[in-house]
Amino acid sequence: MPGPHASIYIRLIYHKTTTIDTKMAFYLIVTTTCLIIFVYFVLNKRTKGSKPLNLPPGPPKLPLIGNIHQLAGLLPHRAFRDLAQKHGPIMHLQLGQISAVIISSPQLAKEALKTHDIALADRPNTFASELVLYGTTDVALSSYGDYWRQMKKICTLELLSAKRVQSFGPIREQELDRFIEFLRLSCGKPINIHKTVTKGINNVVCKASFGKNCKQQHALLEFLDELARVNSGFYVADLFPDFKFLYVVSGLRSKLMKLHKTLDKIFDDIFEEHEGRRKHGEPQEEDLLEVLLKIKEEDGLEFPITNNNIKAIFVDLFGGGTDTSSTTIEWAMTEMIKHPSVMEKVQQEVRKAFHGKTKITELDTQGLSYLQLVIKETLRLHPPIPLLLPRVCREQCKIGGYDIPIKMKVIINAWACSTNPEFWEDPEDFRPERFENTLIDFKGTHHHYIPFGSGRRMCPGITFGLVSVELFLAQMLYNFDWKLADGLNSINIDMMETEGMLAAKKVHLYLIPTSYAPCI
User: Fold this and answer.
1) Is the dihedral of CA 428, 431, 433, 439 positive or negative?
2) How far is CA 67 from CA 45, 60, 70, 242, 323, in A?
3) Model confidence pLDDT, tens digit, residues 71-83
4) Tell me, what's the pLDDT at 34?
5) What is the CATH number of domain 73-79+108-519?
6) Residue 459 is labelled as binding a ligand
7) Helix (H, G, I), strand (E, B), or coil: what is residue 462?
């Protein structure tokens, strides 16, 4: 019979053997994959035309992986800016199979987004977007063409027009009242600014989209949080799109299919609930779903829209209307806590404008000029999406004298443009006053300031998002004074950003609210 330590020894041998077997399997998969990729590149090079292209310069590339190693562990927008300082404002990078041009200067961004707007109007097609966005039939990532133009027009004129956004004022005011009440009950205790604001803005977007009595609201918002977590991850398969088996081996395919099935069921329940109210003759709110269902029933659309197309539009709305707004509010509060004089100045403006009112409406926020400067400066330093959604070249063109061939992916580093020292004095300082007496705005006409993009593919929901940012900040600054939790000071606030498409604050901001006198 073995001694008392024998079972431990056996377990150690088993664990070691299992580890070795796992490693061997892993190396076998990696080696096979690399060989296949190598053969692909060799054959691909041989089939290319003999006429050389004058591509932009770039850092040295390694076989198979290209420039991936130069980005590993770094925030892409900052890594691209650092590389641009060495290799120039327009660079060519090879990221696995993905050939990309990175633009980091306002002058070249203008060439890309204005001069060659149509030539660069397409979007890349990915496995994830095809699945989650119902065949990429949304607006943000849909291929450029007649269908995209139709859906962009519907979004611009019917869903996100100034008149439509204004019509949701009562919903915003109701949710703001709940938000302020929660903060009052939390006075004296640290609260997570991002989590609290996100909940309030999610409620606004959900009720504007599906009505005030949507039973699936909680399930939908929980799901979208999970989807955001999955989308923020890095997947090697995305860099080798021709090798579909990588999506299977990595588990990404099954994960995304499961998420898509859950999302589809939630949307089907929402649509069924909405149709049920219609059939029973209940008064219909003019929510966004009702607007889209009416458009769906109309004759004369060049491309008749389906329920799946409508679902894809709502994925866009929630992605662009919640995370970006709450991220901007958290960064604004962070910068104001770090710069007390800015906080004091904006609070004086807000409290003078509201003049002791206990009930604030959207009309009361008009004319808050310094608050507008604070929001502009926040978006300059912390654009929610620092690398604009990639464009794909559909007609060969030249930028900065270099060839941009068809199918080349073009990425604009909006953050690098908005912190370019040729256009901004002390570019990484937070200074709202720099926007005083300037005509710089969010409309994409000033290419050193493009937090929402520019040209045909710029964000169509700017008004929808900004009105929530302004209202939530105004209410927070009017009703409460703010301080950091005990033991923390403004000097050592962590300013690191998250990895992924959205540059949110990595360590969320916790602040303690104290009720301001008129609200006691």
Assistant:
1) positive
2) 18, 7, 6, 18, 30
3) 888 899 999 999 9
4) 54
5) 1.10.630.10
6) yes
7) helix
